Amino acid sequence: DIGNAGDSLGVEVFVVGGFVRDLMLERPIEDVDVVVEGDGITFARYFASMHHCRLHQHLKFNTAVIIFEDGFKVDVASARLEYYATPAALPVVENSSIKMDLARRDFTINTLAISLNTETFGTLIDYFGGGRDIKDKIIRIIHNLSFIEDPTRIFRAIKFSNRFGFRIGKVTANLIANALSVGAVKHLSGLRVLSELKQIFGEDNPLPALETMADYGLDKVIHHELKLTDATCALFESVGKTLAWHDLLYSDDVYPRWAVYFMAWLHGYTVKVSTQIADRLMFPLKERELLLEQRIKAEQSIRLIEKSYPVSNQQMYWWLIYFKTESLLFMLALTKNESVRKGISHFYTHQRKIQPLIGGKEIKSVGIKPGPVYSRILNKIIDEKLDGKLNTMEQEIEFAR
Ligand code: CTP
Fold first, then answer.
1. 29 in Cβ contact with 49 (< 8 Å)
2. pLDDT per residue over 96-149, tens digit each?
3. Chain centroid, CA 260 distance in Å
4. Could you identify the atom of ligand 1 that is nearest to the CA of residue 22?
5. Centroid of ligand 1 to alpha carbon of 111 (angstroms)
């Protein structure tokens, strides 16, 4: 349909980048990026009106997002048409504007395009050897200044290399080292580094990426005290197992996957160093709380639980209930004590969602005056429920009385 719309408007339309790469790698496809040789906004408006889609336009960048009814999104960008005068002084369209668009990208594996117009439908466009590099499993930049122009690409190289199990090409690796030696990442804003780190830590198994980062000395650029130890590697593996366990629960709890790895990364560093890292990375307030307070509380609590184990259901509940999912998962990964791990996972799967069935209204109905006593009653009800008692509302009301 996209190709047909291109035909109708007389513009060439291509699907580009990650979509084509993932198609060749036979990996699940998430986003669809389309480049129009011409005005992408006009194209997107036309397509959206034909197919009853919603549209977000970014006029400044000549881009738009087409949003289908089921939420599926297509990003549309414009490849500027370049006009050159011919000897006859007639302007002709330089029809390789798609080439220029692709040439601006980071790695060869991201420069593939497929034509969508009817006549050329399905034709693979590969100006920079991306197809060969996918086959050879290699990450290569397109031009030598790539990392200087955009140092976030250093993190992207590591992310893709880790995700696909590709190696970073020799010249590319040297250019990364070069860019680092001239301080390219040092001058990068904290927010941009943070965004890249979140993506790396959000991948299935970020440990190899962390090792590559350490090989390049990227961790030291973020904070000079950061050092990849065997203990961190072991903790990352433990986080991996914990998250795999959590995935199998099909729990509807959503949590930021990256955050668990982030806590593991900074485990063992002092409050001072952690604060400096949070400052350097311009952590937003909420995430800062997670990184500093929740992580340190989690570390303290796990030590306490290990020391006191076995503990009652109630003790475990009141120790753990105020932790966010990501912190609980971090604690599960952190403990080496199998019984403690079982205790925390039991809390997570069976006790965390326990709530009284009654509320203030019911407590009032038995003639108790509102006040702090209400929360004491509700907490006591939870204590009883943790032992499998008080299964009905009537029982809870009776208990309150
Ligand atoms: N790109 C780039 N330099 C960057 C970021 C992006 O050249 N610093 C280019 C890439 O070539 C990429 C395109 O912009 O193909 C879109 O970026 P993004 O959506 O981040 O890339 P994906 O390849 O889709 O990455 P992911 O699979 O992680 O979403």
1. no
2. 589 999 999 999 999 999 999 999 999 999 999 999 999 999 999 999 999 999
3. 12
4. 27
5. 10
Distance CA 97, CA 120 (A): 17
Residues 273/200/215/192 CA torsion (nearest 10 deg): -60
Give Cα 269 distance to the centre of its chain.
Answer: 23
- Token pair of 40, please? 């992408």
Question: Amino acid identity of 352?
Answer: R
Q: What pLDDT was estimated at residue 84?
A: 53
Q: Write out residues with Cβ below 6 Å of ligand 1.
A: 17-18, 31, 105-106, 110, 150, 152-153, 156
Amino acid at 194: L
Q: How far is the CA of 382 from the centre of ligand 1 (A)?
A: 49
Report helix angle 325-334 to 257-266, nearest 10: 50
Which H or E run contains 55?
strand 54-58
- Which pLDDT value is given to residue 49? 93
> For position 22, what pLDDT does the model report?
96
Rounded Cα distance between 396 and 354, Å, is 13
- Which protein residue has the closest C-alpha to ligand 1 atom 23? 18
Task: Give the DSSP H or E segment for 21.
Answer: helix 18-24
Alpha-carbon span 167 to 173, nearest angstrom: 9
Q: Which residue intervals of 32-114 are DSSP H helices? A: 40-51, 97-103
Retrieve residue 48's tokens: 């959206």
Report the b/e string of 262-295 with b at 16+ CB within 10 A: bbbbbbebeeeebebbbeebebeeebbebbbebb
The list of the chain residues with pLDDT below 50 reads 91-95
Give residue-wise pLDDT tens across range 87-111: 555 544 444 589 999 999 999 999 9
CA distance 117 to 100: 19
d(CA 135, CA 128): 14
Q: Which amino acid is at 78?
A: S
Query: In terms of DSSP H, where are the helices of 66-201?
Result: 97-103, 130-136, 146-149, 152-164, 170-181, 190-201
**Other CB atoms closer than 10 Å to residue 127's CB: what's the count?**
16
pLDDT at residue 160, rounded to an integer: 98
24 CA to centre of ligand 1 in angstroms:
16
